Amino acid sequence: MAPRPFLSLVVPVRNEEEVLDAFFAALAPVAEQVAATAGPVEFIFIDDGSTDRTAALLRARAETDPRVRLVSFSRNFGKEAGLTAGLHFARGDVAVPIDVDLQDPPELIPAMIAKWRDGFDVVYGERVSRPTDTWLKRLSAERFYRLFNRISDVPIPFNAGDFRLMDRAVVEALCALPERTRFMKGLFAAMGYRQAALPYVRPERAAGTTKFRFLRLWAFALDGITSFSSIPLRVWSYVGGAIALLGLLYGGFIGLRTLVFGRDVPGFATLAVMTSVIGGLQLLSIGVLGEYVARLFVEAKQRPIFIVRELAGFDDEEAAEQARKLAGKAVIARHRPRPAPQALEP
């Protein structure tokens, strides 16, 4: 087994062949600096079902660079599963999840290590400026952070992504969590420990395009809220109580008016509007309940968080150790080369 590294860089990738060379070029001087001052570095790439040459390029680099390790999924499981896998495979004293598009500047890693040496267990990058994002993305992100922190018992830092340095103890605590629906920003915050922010200006993407779309971000936000807050469920108790009280008051008003004036109150329009409003609220509340039930359904099935199709850069002993660690959470079913077809005898 290879000697244990000091730093593990966890890099989820999907269809990123355009930016890999630029990423390695930017990472090389930082890795050399860390290796010279702290200890060895390993690069753990999680290929999340790429359909381009990303996996092939990383596989070829792993054959020539012993620091590079590739974990290829059998399909696209999502970035949260990729981060989970990378942290499970990380062996370093500290681990740093980082995006391959260079919007997480690698040159900040030595400063993170310095803060770690000062006694902090987690050092997260704080985006003090996001000039490359659209105003809509900045606004929606701000609103989400504010809403999440209002309704969750575990607040997450504003403008903090996955880019952070974590001590080995934090990584092991994260890997011990059994849940299948994983909102990593919330899980990072839920770990506690001593945390510090490292401000930076987020640069432009080096190449390629983002793989996140609006619907995926919306689903991501729902996962975060339903994973860390029960208030969306509780609020419907108050809504139901308020509607019941209004109904009683309105019923009393109708009865009193009928007794005083001795005539019924025409109310077809009122009944139609109230029926529509109450029916809509009931469907909305059932939808909120369904979001939580769906996540219970996922957890109850206990399916693996991810399935590994191929490992590159690992020796057999390391692969066996990882398989033991991931028992019950994931599957390592490595692809083996198929034998060449034999010629038929005439």
UniProtKB/TrEMBL annotation:
It is found in: Cell membrane. One of its GO terms (cellular component) is plasma membrane. Belongs to the glycosyltransferase 2 family. GtrB subfamily. This is Glycosyltransferase. Its main location: membrane. Signal peptide: none annotated. One of its GO terms (molecular function) is glycosyltransferase activity. It holds the Pfam family Glycos_transf_2. It comes from the Bacteria. Keywords: Cell membrane, Glycosyltransferase, Membrane, Transferase, Transmembrane, Transmembrane helix. The chain crosses the membrane at residues 235-256, 268-294. PANTHER family: PROPHAGE BACTOPRENOL GLUCOSYL TRANSFERASE HOMOLOG, UNDECAPRENYL-PHOSPHATE 4-DEOXY-4-FORMAMIDO-L-ARABINOSE TRANSFERASE-RELATED. It is a multi-pass membrane protein. Residues 8-173 form the Glycosyltransferase 2-like domain.
